[in-house]
Amino acid sequence: MNAADKYSALYDIKNVFKLILTTISNDLKADIVSLMVPDEIKQKLSIIEAIGLSMDSILNISFDFNDGIAGKAYSEKKCIYENNVFNSEYFKNFSFQRENFGSIIAYPIIDNDKVIAIINVSSSKTNNFSEKTINYLENYATLILNALKNFNMTGEELTLNFIDETTGLYNYSFFIENLRRENDRAERYNEVYSLILIKITNFNELIKKWDDTKIKETLRYFGAFIKNTSRRVDICAVYNLNTFAVITPETGKGGAQKKVERLYTNVEAKKYYPSDITNYPILNVVCGVSSYPIDGKNVNEILEHCLSQI
Q: pTM for the full model?
């Protein structure tokens, strides 16, 4: 399986997982349902899909193999079920779980005596689950196991890192895949979306004047600025070394241009740095805007129109 096929398969299987987790959440009236997989290289359990968690939480929450309820279920290879997390002796060291959950279940999915995934179900209410819940989860554990086998995906592949380490934004591969999917969705449902590219025009001058550490810090600040001034549904990513991208679902040309106008104003005011930051590079930027379907009807046309402006 080549890289492109792996990315495609990854998104397809995550759509399957999202459907299963949504069903579990609705049926059990749970606040949060997540699916974790082990990464043998990092020796951690990472979330690959969740209902009731923000994208930041999905990307940042992980457990060592023997930590938390998921780690306990993984290491002991059995379902862990707590109807009152707050009073549980075991969870006294896990303040996040005690403060946010009333009852919680971690159900391990086992194949050939090896845990390949964990289903976590939690509620803010105590005594919200029962033994019937565990029997219910067994059926969906089988569905998830079959999906993993059908797609032939490993834990490491399921936790492919889509984050650019320097900026904290999504990387180019994630951007291209999401642009393709957004274009397909807009075409199928007769909707609009826009792409904004933001290029740092004086980047070559900056790398001659400033050291590598300062440049990386600047890119990180600017990446955070782009993310913090975008909606949660927007996809903020790195296009290349000095260019950033924002995919804005259900946003036409007018809305995208207004966003760009605000961005220019904020950049001129140097709001990409915290107020207490001094002695950092000043950035000059230019933006391109391309909207579906008026500027293009496929990914290549949308990208070419946007690139022509920067």
A: 0.57
